[in-house]
Amino acid sequence: MKRTSKLLAGLAALVVAVPAAGALNQETQARPAATQQLSAVAAGLAGQSAASGTKPNVLLVMTDDMRHDDVKYMPHVRQFIQSRGTDFRNMFAPTPLCCPNRTSYLTGKYAHNHKVWWHDAPWGYGSFDDRRSLATALQSAGYQTGYVGKYLNGYGRMRPKAAPNHNPATFVPDGWTDWRATPDSTGSLPESDPRAGSTYRYFDTTVNNNGRLEGHQGVYNSKVLANEGIKVLDRFTRSSKPWYLQINSLAPHHGGPVERDDPYLVTPARPNWVKGKFNSVITRGPGVPASGQPEPDISDKARITRLRPKLGDRERRAIRAEARQRAETLYVLDLQLARVFAKLKASGQLSRTVVAFTSDNGYMEGEHRWQSGKVIGFEPAYRVPLLIAGPGIPAGASQVSPVTTVDLSATVLDWAGAQLAGADGRSFLPDIGAKEGWTRAVGYESFIPSIRNDHDRPGFTRGPRSAIGIRTAGYFYVRYSNGESELFDLHRDPNQLRSVARDPAYTDARRALDQAWNAFQACAGASCQVTLDRSLQTDFATTRGLRTTMATATARYYG
């Protein structure tokens, strides 16, 4: 708990700290200006209400590989969204990997229905038909639609399924009024061309501006995306039509260039002025406990985790460096988002705009000996942040009923009065502000290349899935395609330290979980709303208590 207190104290100081003069001039907007702008935004919130009968605008920010507990590094996001909105404390990414889960948001479908399982061929962007998506549904409902930043892995490099003969780098998918995505590759352009940047080059971003490539060499990625987002807002807010704008950051995903202080783990590049900003408050990785050795005994875990080596001094130093650099990139992104928020306030449309903040998936940083990565069903990879503020959203509140990425997609469509045929998610708009418990299963599924797939095994015949799981308020249960399984009793073991899959005392619980598992693994559309056996359901008070217990236990174990 001492480390947690120290971290919070340090972060509080960072809200008002000012870097050396001129530090932001080359790479980002001046921080004092951004802070003043956001203070003005907060001051102007009182007394605002949504215009009756109008469709709300929606601004959605989606980060890349951001853990649910990383929000603490983003004071402006907390001030602008969390403090005047609702924190959804049980938000999950059903397939915790960039490309599949982003596709789930755009389609409203689980991976076993949209079939984009991985970021490389034969999957990735080239396997996604984006002629019918969230964007086309919103346009049909009368919305202006804008997209800024990272799209799907392989965009710009893989040929579009919707237009295989089109230049991948300049392709604009259907449904977008203003398209400013960052391609992974710019094709045949020579490296000397200023437009030959990439999504994963933090200081060399190329933007596909509605079919025209624009280079931004020497400008930090988060500033580029904020600039583009402000341009879209300026265009959209001049019209009387409602709008939807999605800004997808690269941060805190790893990306170049490689820097002198990088560990052997992949990390994100960041501006010089922010380097070292969190050194005094991040004294070890978030998944490395005070003892320095997470889980001396991992014999209860599946083989994919049992193969992980113990963390020595070198590994712990690398995880600490990784955590610091990720926090630094989020802090820079936060400053840039403050500019976007200020632009929204200045437009006069804040009172009728829903602002949402989430991530495509989480990230492992030492837990269960995973030094980095995602895909796996452990909480740091599977749980993601979701903050929402706007008309009809309770301020300063928290929601503990479970939601997922496909539910978020359904909710955005619900706000717009739009529909997307075949979607698996359920709008949680009716539940906002209600004291709902946990009565339905939350699914998890992943393709994990290092796990042997046995497609004759029941439940694993629909695609290349390696893992299928069910999350309830009190349990996480996963079955692997090689025949292994894990079961964690979150009532007694909030940190998932001991699997009880082989414990006969859990026979009844496993039987009920198997029932939900069987229903989820082949679901489509409305059948994906799997009601749990009553023995697994929890009311509001119990659900809230379990979430608090988990947060406290995590802070105690890793703090």
From TrEMBL:
Signal peptide (UniProt feature, chain positions): 1-22
Molecular function GO labels: hydrolase activity
Source organism per UniProt: Nocardioides cavernaquae
Keyword Membrane: no
CDD domains per UniProt: G6S (cd16147)
Pfam families: Sulfatase
Keywords on record: Glycoprotein, Hydrolase, Signal
Sulfatase N-terminal domain sequence ranges: 56-418
Residue spans crossing the bilayer: none
Family: Belongs to the sulfatase family.
InterPro entries attached to this UniProt entry: Alkaline_phosphatase_core_sf, Sulfatase_CS, Sulfatase_N
UniProt-recorded name of the protein: Sulfatase N-terminal domain-containing protein
Keyword Signal: yes
